[in-house]
Here is the input.
Amino acid sequence: MALPRAQSAIALNRFGFMPKAAAPTDARGALLADLDNPAAGQINNSDLLSVGEAFRALVAFRQEEKAERLAKAAALSSNPSEMVAPASNDSVKPDMAKPDVAARPMLGVPQQIYLKEAQARFDVALAAETGFVERLVWFWSNHFCVSADKGPVRALCGAFEREAIRSHVRGKFFDMLLAVETHPAMLLYLDNAQSIGPNSFAGQRRNKGLNENLAREIMELHTVGVRSGYSQADVTNFAKVITGWSVVPPRQPEGGVFIFNPRQHEPGAERVLGRDYADNGFEQGRSVLLTLARSPATAKHVATKLARHFVADAPPQSLIDLLAKRFQDTDGDLKEVSRALVTAPEAWNAPASKLRRPSEWLVDSMRALSLPAPNVQPLLNVQNLLGEPLWRPPAPNGFSDDSAAWMDGLAQRLDIANNLARRAGPLTDPETVAERTLGPLLSDETKQTLARAESRPQAIALLLMAPEFQRR
Amino acid sequence: MTFSAHLTTRRELLVTSGALFAWAYMPRLALSEGRDPRFLVIVLRGALDGLAAVAPVGDPDWVRLRGSDALLISGDTAALPLDNFFALNPAMPNLYRMYKAGQASIVHAVASPYRERSHFDGQDVLESGLTRPGGDTGWLNRALLSLQPGERVRGKDAFAVGPITPLLARGPAPVLSWTPSRLQPASNDTLSRLLDLYQHTDPGLAKALQERTALAAIASGGMQASEGRPARPVLAYFNEAASGAARFMARPDGPRVGALAFDGWDTHSNEGATHGRLSVLLGALDGALAAIESGLGEAWKETVVAVVTEFGRTARINGTEGTDHGTGTVALLAGGALKGGRVVADWPSLADNALYENRDLKPTTDLRAVMKGILRDHLRADERVLASTVFPGSEHVKPLAGLLA
Here is the structure.
């Protein structure tokens, strides 16, 4: 069914990225086709490391670093004269006075891996057709976020997104949930790798115990949601259930991957949310996750977050209900839920009220101006500057999906828009870009503002900052 | 200021405005004469009001056209008299000093061949050197191509090949770029245009932007953005860009020919020639010229700086204390290599019937003649090449002679 042009443009902006070429005439069809395209949202780059490879590379790097430090310390202690401070010493090499660029230490392995993963992520977003599946990946990656700022996670967060999120973005919610909660990045981020059942073999030998961080966040953030009726006892018991969900020590040849370690696992049956789970090892935790995934509270929680992310800060209840019902009816089939999202009338009729998140706005701007991204670092800098550093959310609840949270960065966006516009070059025609990207959404006021600008770069900057470009 | 081989982080996001784009070689012919000339072009984007920069105070129609906005040679903001007809905006004491020392000249009632009033097309023509919009190389670059390249400029540590070269410097001649480390803030002009748009279409965004920019202004110790005055960061940016560029061009192995651009000259409302926005911008430009003079040191003696803009502004003040897009304007020339202290103008008069289309200062000098004069006499560019490939179709536009000492 053909839609009015303006509505179609709103929907493309709402669910995807800025069109790179002429907008498709059948917007709904294009979004649904993206869901059916197996290549959408996938990164096929054999250079990227699996989580185990990344973790082992990280540990090898740390060991090398340590060996170097030890060697230096040993050299110094055997030759203490070198420790004399060379202040006011004429024999100091002249180039010691100023920092030598070439002599700057190379990036560490974790940062190299992080940058490669980030580059692959930007590449796939900039190349995407409508970008709907990629936007879904971003949504789920933020829902199940990990942080690169925690320990070894910097080297693992890219693999996490590819292995746990992208692989299941059109699959079952439970499969994604299981992949997420058994992924080393998540187990390390929320401390479950070190959680030890007090009565387990390891718990009895070492004076270490339970860490309920992951169990709590699974319930509060990942599935049923806060205030959905679970108690502290549910959290504690669930934490016991998933003791032993850990990571093979990365020094081992096949290390750095998930392992169920029975020696850490708290023995015995546990009662979680009114149901008893017999101790059948790993299956015990898997069963709790399955119950949580099938809970109506999870359907409601996920539906609310989806509607809030894609449609409005305060989405219509009817849309939430519809998505929740679809979620339950299909046993959490994310492709079907996504399909329901783009076919619901509420999702098309709502006015464009949400402020684009910095990451979205950046990719949309790059796509609008056809800017290449040969080097990911400046893009990461933009996201840092605007308060949404890639894979580095401030807390396990991820980056906010509330427009108000991003208003603060509006003035910085203007400076960035100013600079992006200049990168686009003096010959980029603002009118052409505006027509291609926003087309029927452009207000007369915006058109007039662009036409009256003092230079093309100024017009481009104003276009990137126009309300139609900021909101979706 | 430090430079690195890798343009990392913010700097890669940076921009043509304020960035120096310089030829990768030295001009061999001039060097063989025992000279070592420097040439820097500064483009003012947005169209400078030439009449407010250099006022024809002796023209009988001047005060009638500009009313209380007319610069006068008396009063508390008296313009600086250049001769018995023209006076310089009081915001430019350094240019005035250079002028008095014979190191600056003004060309008035000047314009490129472009006669419409679109900024974008006007800048294209100004920078491409063609007679109409279109074309993807700039006259400065094509002029470089006609000069024999001498030694390659040193500076892998200082320059990167600019992906965002302005049209003026684009073309087959290899060009390097350097950008000041300061992230150029969006101009107050851009900010006020955006605020205006938000106020008409999205009050929520308007409120957020207003609050945040007010906070930022206080945080940076800058002045409030009242009366459309550019905030202090713009001044600092002009200065850093100009002095950085000058220091490069001063180096024995540094570049000799380059280009910079400064934005923000589109003064449609509250132009503020003596107290407001234009006054601050001209002050910033004046500061930039002084920074170039001191940054170049001894090399200033062999330097020409040409400040040009895409077109002028209306002769009359409009209904919002500003001026709209016009035609004739000024070109400001500074540098020790000039035979300065002169206003070069075939003055068309400001009488109503003498105005171009009854609204603009009528251009009587072709800007291409000025540039051709400098390129020929300063850099030793071949006159036939100037007429054919640098400014195609300009055979009838003779190079303006006598600008150089």
